[in-house]
Fold this protein.
Amino acid sequence: MSTGAPVGSRPHTFVVAPSATGRRLDLVLAAEFPQVSRTQFSRHVSAGAVTVNGKLAAPSRKLRAGQVIVWTPPAPQPSLELRAQDIPLQVVYEDASLVVLDKPAGLVVHPAAGHEDGTLVNALLAHCRDLRGIGGELRPGIVHRLDKDTSGLLVVAKDDATMVALGADFKIHRVRRVYDALVVGRPPRAAGKIDTLHGRDPHDRKRFTTRVKTGRRAITNWRLVEDMGRAALLQAELQTGRTHQVRVHLAALGCPILGDATYGRSPRDAAVREIAHTLGRQALHARVLGFYHPKTGAWLEFQSEPPADFSAALDSLRILAADDRAKADTRPQSGKGG
């Protein structure tokens, strides 16, 4: 059992449980302190920041029940893998603990293969002058993510304590997240709840699907905001927060998100297809984000209007709908003569 969430560089002590017998030291540490990755713990162990019964050990050391583990997090150091970059950010709210951002579409959140820099994290390293770091590294804490081509609100932690508290609230769904989505086609009713299992597609590991026998439960509440005949504007509120959840669920509803190349389909309607092509991304925007502040306990809620490209696509769909209604009004009425 650990003594608490890591804060600063004070030591943290716990006793190895019987269930952890035979497991690697770095894996047990990562399970005990989930806000720090196994890779980071391997570096900490190798640097002498961890002892087992008072002695240094290798990351691969197999543990026994009853052994006493002491971890002293090193003071945050600039990450060797990340560099600060002066990338413009739209900051909605900021204090000493966290920052809320309105992310533009096209910006990757975290460095990964193929996106080593030019990300939101690189921008935050340049922006946050009071960053205290996560897991012993001078980096911001990504509490939740938005896909590269999804725009809208997200919150980032500046320190371990905030990361742990927000992460726990996201895990138990004590947050509010609402998305605007332009979808192809018309939903079957005015509102509803999608409650499914959610897991990786066995045929394509980059995709997720509801068609799994085992997986994590995923729940999305949705409502129709505007019916435009060939397309619709929906709002989707997450009750859970699985990867690609809104995109997967709306596709399963029979209304894939406009421009979603992964879960959607190219619209058969040429005019709608052209609008999707002009948009060039999935028409998904994180409009509302609400959560309890980890330090004050106050409820914070933020709203963001969709960006210009989303609004332009919506306007184009409205023009199509108006044209369709005008054509319908001018068609001769069929019926029996008197």
Q: What stands out?
A: The longest helix spans residues 308-330. Confidence is low (pLDDT under 50) at residues 1-8. Residues 80-171 form a domain with the Pseudouridine synthase fold (CATH 3.30.2350.10).
